[in-house]
Specification:
The chain is an alpha+beta fold. It is built from 4 helices and 7 strands. Strands 1-2-3-4-5-7-6 form a 7-stranded mixed beta sheet, with helices on both faces.
């Protein structure tokens, strides 16, 4: 049985999962990923959630402020051997709940075009494609999405 822990951006478990995420992205995108690394810092992250299977950190996700009404979902990752188990849904649901509790009414995110499983997951979770925002405008490997959050 999985359980979720709300963490800070300095959490060792979060840091370890983010390293796995970065390795996965570098494998998918190669040198192109270097363009995105500057946007993936945890420095501005307000909130992080880690999914645990016993003591093993198996997934993570974060959000940060985009504007007064909008949280940007960041650094979503589930270890490959735990994909398809519902961990990603648990993480995203918790991030959306936390963002709503923090006063945000909308969530946005960016994922890559070489992440078809993520695109399917976010679509299934109610996210709709939007124009690429801010730093992702004009970036052909990016796909941006948004969702209105339920009030908590």
């Amino acid at each position: 049985m999985f359980h979720l822990v709300r963490e800070s951006r300095d959490s060792n478990a979060l840091q370890a999962l983010v390293r796995l995420l970065d390795a996965d992205l570098n494998e998918r995108y190669g040198v192109v990923q270097a363009q995105y690394d500057q946007f993936n810092s945890l420095a501005n992250v307000e909130a992080a959630v880690v999914a645990l299977d016993g003591d093993l950190a198996v997934g993570c996700g974060c959000f940060k402020r985009f504007d007064a009404d909008t949280a940007e979902i960041k650094r979503m990752f589930v270890r490959p051997e735990y994909r398809g188990t519902g961990v990603a849904k648990m993480l995203l649901d918790e991030l959306e709940t936390w963002a709503s509790e923090a006063g945000y009414s909308r969530a946005i995110l960016e994922t890559g075009i070489k992440n078809p499983e993520a695109i399917r997951f976010y679509t299934k979770s109610g996210y709709l494609r939007i124009d690429n925002f801010r730093q992702y405008a004009g970036m052909v490997n990016s796909l941006c999405m948004a969702k209105t959050l339920a009030e908590s």
